[in-house]
Amino acid sequence: MSAPQHQEPVSFAFDEESEAQIVKILKRYPETKKASGVIPLLYVVQKQMGRQTGSAWVPRVAMDQVALRLGMAPIRVYEVASFYFMFNTKPIGRHHLQVCGTTPCWLRGSDEVLRACKDAGRLKGYGDTSEDGLFTLTEVECLGACVNAPILQVDDDYYEDLDYDSAVKLIEALKRGERPEPGSAKGRLCSAPEGGPETLLDIPLAEEK
Amino acid sequence: MAKVTVDGIEIEVPNGATVLQACEAAAKEIPRFCYHERLSVAGNCRMCLVEVEKAPKPVASCAYPVADGMKVFTDSPMVRNARRNVMEFLLINHPLDCPICDQGGECDLQDQATAYGGQGGRYREEKRAVKDKYLGPLVKTIMNRCIQCTRCVRFATEVAGVPELGATGRGEDMQIGTYVEKALTTELSGNLIDICPVGALTSRPYAYVARPWELRKTDSIDVLDATGTNIRVDTRGPEVVRILPRVNDDVNEEWMADRGRFAFDGLKRQRLDRPWVRKDGKLRQASWEEAFAVISEKMQGLKGDQVGAIAGDLVDAESAFALRALMRGLSSANTDCRQDGAAIDTSRRDFYLFNTGIAGIEEADALVIIGSNPRKEAPVLNARIRKRWASGALKVAHIGPKGLDLTYNTEHLGEGPAAIAGLMDGSLGFAETLKAASKPMVIVGRAALARPDGAAVLAAAWDLANAFGGLTPEWHGFNVLHLFGGQVGALDAGFVPGEGGRDVAGMLQGGLEALWLLGADNIEASAIPAGTFVVYQGHHGGKAAARADVILPGAAYTEKEGTYVSTEGRVQRGRLALFPPGEAKEDWRIIRAAGAALDVALDFDTLDALRERMVAFNPIFGAVDGRMAGGCADTAGPQAGGALGEAAFTLPISDYWLADAVSRASETMAQCSRIYNDPAPRLAAE
């Protein structure tokens, strides 16, 4: 697979909102160890790019800015940014569809979620960005929400307990510019059993006492 | 101290030592790739696994601290098995291209695979392919061969001080590179080739040139800067094919600057390989007899003060001493080796040496650099300063051009000599640092002495070192940083104006009938008065050679037995690695023969006799490989001679890659100069 060519912006500057976040982040670290803030700052960059351009990614010029801000060599920032999949070093679509393909999600039907993403989002497969620039599809490793498998992470939100239809519905809503409530598509609370409690029924709830 | 038993051998090692160091102390060989004793510990190649009693698994000895009573086994079945399997993993993605690999025959991976590896690989799948990276004109990369030991990353970051290399990506996609393609901006890039344990980083000029077993290896000394780097000259047949550093912990550790390492192709080009004589205004080829006949005709009978000699920057002490003897035999006191006109006071040796010593830098706690850029003038010495700075114990300030990147943080005190006065009267903040320092150092660049107020700068630098306790019987903090390997040797050989003699400027003013230039290639032809008979003796035709009336072809530093004195005053011997080209001869022999032609009795017929004469003249020449170390016995400074000027200090080396006659003839260096001086960084891969 040859990497698609993309246009790097010529410059990057933190906006006001980002600056406020940076002040907050840097307070967590002593001055001599401020390089520890590299990951939070890269997130700040990615968020700002999302706000400004509709594509949440980290351009190289922005990494240079992070390096400058943290007093570290640019290559050390490149190393971190290229190590973690959570940082997009290439432009992506407005919504980042991240399908968990690890065993529990796969057993619970992540293939169906993937199919829904391809069909509804008009995507060819993992790594693809739709022609309208709305979606980018990525396969991710375990998102740590196996009890609510399968999971589709859209940007920062977890959509859980999906199947083909609910995933299509979710993507159609995103296309209309809506933002459905994250969480279980089946309406369960966190990871509570589907359709109400099934065990420990003989113990009265506190309010019933 | 901790008592450790290695394979039944009981040894004591300091607390905090690693198991690997303990094993080495017990003379047990531990294979390794990522571990390098001069770099930080990474612990990622896993080749150095050993068995430790009561440890459930083999441990990586390079990163495992010793404990008292520890029992280590380096040759148990578990260890052998572990190493064999680590080796199998390392070789999974390593191409089997040893027959076409330049590292073949001197490759750590090849050797250790033979010694510790298994019978063959069981891997039948696709090997990964990695795109080659562009690291500049000197280092060639074949990244498929990389085993990701990260030695190069650590070297660039820690020793060279240019954190530009890194490991990007993760897992199988991890790659070593600069991310943004560009040439590494360091003068020490050749060392990456040495520390790479495989053939991923190899020498571009040496690509497909020779195999190590074809080479004749000669230990010698680098003269292209004044560090006195210990080198090994590898020759095959009649040419130098590469130059490598030798380990000398007191001088260069195991590093080497790029100019010394890669400029050798200049030794083959633009050489003076036969005598030339000017006839009817044109230089024509001649025989040695004709050349000496012309010299004898023109110079015999001249009065002493009508004759003069200037020595260049790369001359060996023998030829400087021989030429001095010849001049004195002609009763001339006009000898000078300071083409740049540096106001060097030769009345005492410590007025012109790097007295602290290169290894001594590692004791210093404050440093003021005056009118020098050690990164360009002596890159290996600069790496030593950086090493001390990185340990946190050294504070550095510099006086000179603003915006100098020395690879470590410095406080800029000012551009001109006024800053020295500012330190003396305490008006600059760095004076407090100097006051608090127990071993302060002052480095004054040679170029800072080559100005009209040079003598005053020299005296002021001395006073500065003295005022802050840098000159004590235990510690000598006054340092002059010379630029080239022949400069100190010529001073030690007394190649300075004798009683009533003229210096370089005086000789060029006129009044000389004959001028002898010994490798003095920085003299502008137009600066020599018309009508002066000029003899140029040297190996490369510099600017002055075109002006010469007689050219005598000499030997370069790889082609003769020569003594060189480094900036720290270390007397070292360069050795003959190959014979001079054509009819060129060793320089002292040429001068000896000229003495015979001019009826001057020179009392040496052999190199040994010449060296005996030199030791008699200056006993320092007897202390080969040593240097006069120690403190400052007499704090009385050099003669001031005038007041400090106002002018800002300028740096002597504007183009590192083309700073001397050899590198100006080198194609490799010309290419470096083009690429590194290009204001637009090269972004495209080759």
UniProtKB/TrEMBL annotation, chain A:
The lineage of its organism: Bacteria, Pseudomonadati, Pseudomonadota, Alphaproteobacteria, Acetobacterales. It catalyses: a quinone + NADH + 5 H(+)(in) = a quinol + NAD(+) + 4 H(+)(out). The keyword Transmembrane does not apply. This is NAD(P)H-dependent oxidoreductase subunit E. [2Fe-2S] cluster binds at C100, C105, C142, C146. The keyword Iron applies. Residues 178-209 are annotated as: Disordered. GO terms for cellular component: catalytic complex; membrane protein complex; organelle envelope; organelle membrane. It comes from Teichococcus oryzae. Belongs to the complex I 24 kDa subunit family. It holds the Pfam family 2Fe-2S_thioredx. Its cofactor is [2Fe-2S] cluster.
UniProtKB/TrEMBL annotation, chain B:
SMART domains: NADH-G_4Fe-4S_3. One of its GO terms (molecular function) is metal ion binding. Its EC number is 7.1.1.-. InterPro entries: 2Fe-2S_ferredoxin-like_sf (IPR036010), 2Fe-2S_ferredoxin-type (IPR001041), Mopterin_OxRdtase (IPR006656), Mopterin_OxRdtase_4Fe-4S_dom (IPR006963), NADH_UbQ_OxRdtase_75kDa_su_CS (IPR000283), NADH_UbQ_OxRdtase_ferredoxin (IPR054351), NADH_UbQ_OxRdtase_Gsu (IPR010228), NADH_UbQ_OxRdtase_Gsu_4Fe4S-bd (IPR019574). Its cofactor is [4Fe-4S] cluster; [2Fe-2S] cluster. The keyword ATP-binding does not apply. The keyword Transmembrane does not apply. This is NADH-quinone oxidoreductase. It comes from Teichococcus oryzae.
